[in-house]
Amino acid sequence: NETTLAEVLQGAGYYTAMIGKWHLGHRGPYHPSRRGFDYYYGIPYSNDMGCTDTPGYDIPECPPCVKDPAKESDEHKDCYSTVALPLFEDLQIVEQPLDLWTLTEKYTQKAVDIIHKAREVGKPF
Question: Is 65 within 8 Å of 50 (Cβ atoms)?
Answer without folding.
Answer: no
